[in-house]
Each structure stands twice: as C-alpha cells, then as structure tokens.
Amino acid sequence: GQQRASHTPHPELRVLTGRAAERMGVMTLRILFSIVFLLFVASAAGAQGASNPPAEEQNETMLDTLKRMQIKREEEEHKKILDKGAQIGRDAESLAKEAVNGHLPRAGEKKLREIEKAARQIRSDFGGGGDDTPLDPMPASLDDALKRLDDASERVNKHLCKTSRRVISVSVVEVTNEVTQLVKVLRGYLL
Predict the structure, then answer these.
(1) Percent of all residues in the chain with a pLDDT value above 70, rounded to a whole number
(2) Which residues contact 121 (CB under 8 A, 6 or more apart)?
(3) For residue 102, how many C-alpha atoms fall within 13 Å in the half-sphere facing its CB?
(4) Are the C-beta atoms of residues 81 and 169 closer than 8 Å to each other?
(5) pTM across the whole model
(6) How far apart (Å, rounded) are the C-alpha atoms in residues 87 and 114?
C-alpha cells in the first residue's frame, strides 16, 4: 500500500473562511481608510502651503516690521530728549523766579539736580561724555548765572529742534556741558 498524499497544487493559496476572512476584510478596510486619510492630509497640506507666501517674502515682511518698530522706538526716544530739553528750560525759568537776595532757596537743589541729570542724559544721547571744562568767563553773580542758564537752555532746545533722532551734535554736547557747569556754580548760591 501506497498511501497517496493529499496534494494541493499551491498550499499557500487556500480559501479563507469564517473568522479568518472577516479579519482579512477588516484589515483591508483599515489599510484603505489609512491610504485615503493620508491622501487627504497630503492634499490639505499642499493647499495650505500654496496659500503661504514664500520664505523670502516672509523674511522681508518680518524685516520691514522690525525696521518700523526700531524707527518708532527711536522717534519715541527723540521725543523724550526734546521733553528733557523743555524741562531744563522750565526749571531754569522757575529758578530765576525763586532767587531772592542773591541766593536760591534750598528747594532749588531738586531743580538743579533735575537740570543736571537731563543735561547729562541729552549729552550722552548725542555722543558726548563728561567734560569738566570750567566756564569762561565765570558768572559774576547769581543773576548772571541764572541768565546764562536760561540762555543755555534756550540754545539746547533750539539745537534739539534742529536735530533728527540719528544725529551726533557737537553743538548740543557743548551747550549741555555749559548747563552742567552752570548748575555747579548755582549750587554755591543755595541757602
């Protein structure tokens, strides 16, 4: 007896039945769904990419925005400098009104500090440094010193109005140096 082996031409190609067929169908649906989903996401990303400007254009827009912000900041800083110049003028005028019998009241010290501080900040913003060159000629009296301070504050404001936010002005530096020296002289007249 020979036994005859049951022999199928291709054993790997058998027909699936029952649960195996059901699992294969679910897996096929998952694969198809995944492919459709990926195609949808890819087309949506492509459409979104088409609506965005190129990177070069985005960089230009960003640089323009940064430039505008810098200009605005510089303009605000220049306005603050102009305000400090105006404050020097107001304080100098106020000191002239407060002078009595060749002396300044003790309350004048605060105004002198504010004038000196504003003059130093303006000088620094316009590229100047500390210059302790004494006044020539020195004021002969309190009235003379106050008149020169008032005159110097007017010149500071006149020069500031003529300058832009990007200027280094020697004339502004010189006049603010004069203001700081006059403040030192005026401190000698405080009660």
Answers:
(1) 83
(2) 81, 84
(3) 3
(4) no
(5) 0.65
(6) 9
